[in-house]
Amino acid sequence: MTPRPLERRAIIAALKVRQGAGVPDDVPICSYDFAVKQGVAVRFMPISSMEGIYDRHSKTIVISSLRPWGRRAFTCAHEYGHHVFGHGAHVDELPEERQEPRAPEELLADRFAGFLLMPRLAVLDGFRKRGVDPSRCGPTDAYMIACWLGVSYGAFLTHASLAVGVMPKGVADGLRRVSPKEVKAGLAPGCLGDELIVVDEHWANALDLVVGDIAMLPGGTIVEGAVTETINKTSTATYVRATSRGIGRALLGQWAVSIRVMPAEYTGLARCRHIPEEDNA
């Protein structure tokens, strides 16, 4: 299968799945919730040697809870792609441990995941809502839109430029020379070793965090609940760290989003990840 037919097949399948679920092509999704709503069980396990697993017989996806924020979401979408295309059982190794070239099924699932999480309309809307010209996009804007879409900085740059053609390749190449670590240093000095999710008032979905993650919220945001602690405030941002499993809320004027926190190295079903243990017994 040549790359062009493979990508076409991935695009059609991703858009069809969204349409079947009643989800517009211009909004972000939570891949865990999406898969569960389509009848696929999603579990987390702290396995260091792999990204994810799909078992066709039990219709179950297993994701390593040790992987970074955006990578976990992409892996879930990738494994869900195996389900959509009727592939057999798959174990996806860490990229650095992969010995053989990727099989067509893996490439197809990867492309599907990209188009499921980042349809062209959603990428365009990410720029439009923030008044950002893709040809003049800076690292901070790219990082913010990647967070909004629920993917990593690198995955967003690759998809926005090569897969959907919204961002000029030269711009993406230039942005790629600025590492996520450097972007985080500019946004949240002193938090370089932490996962940083940048949230703005265009978010509508719940904000999913792991204990220890930091969220950069708009300045003046009020945070309710006992699942986070405020670690810094400026005129333009409120920084909170996820501290305990459960659900909270962020509010600013008419804008509000739920904050859902799961434990670090979580083991269990995705649908229970943010439910306190005493309520989940």
Write up this protein:
- The chain has 281 residues and is α+β, with helices and mostly antiparallel strands.
- It is 37% helix and 23% strand.
- The protein contains nine helices and 13 strands.
Which helices and strands appear, and what pairs or packs with what?
Layout: H1 3-21, H2 31-37, E1 41-45, E2 50-55, E3 60-64, H3 69-84, E4 90-93, H4 104-117, H5 120-129, H6 139-149, H7 153-163, H8 169-176, H9 180-187, E5 196-198, E6 207-210, E7 214-218, E8 222-224, E9 228-233, E10 237-242, E11 246-252, E12 255-262, E13 268-269
Parallel strand pairs: 1-3, 5-7, 6-12
Antiparallel strand pairs: 1-13, 2-3, 2-4, 7-10, 8-11, 9-10, 11-12
Helix pairs in contact: 1-4, 3-4, 5-6, 6-7, 7-8
From the N-terminal CA to the C-terminal CA, the straight-line distance is 48 Å
Uncertain stretches? none
Look at the helices and sheets and give the structural class. Answer: alpha+beta
Based on Cα principal axes, name the global outline.
globular
Q: Give the H and E element order.
A: HHEEEHEHHHHHHEEEEEEEEE
Radius of gyration: 18 Å
**What average pLDDT do the residues reach?**
93
**Strand order of the biggest β-sheet:** 4-2-3-1-13
Report the helical percentage. 25-40%
Number of helices: 9
Biggest β-sheet: count, sense, barrel?
5 strands, mixed
Overall number of strands:
13
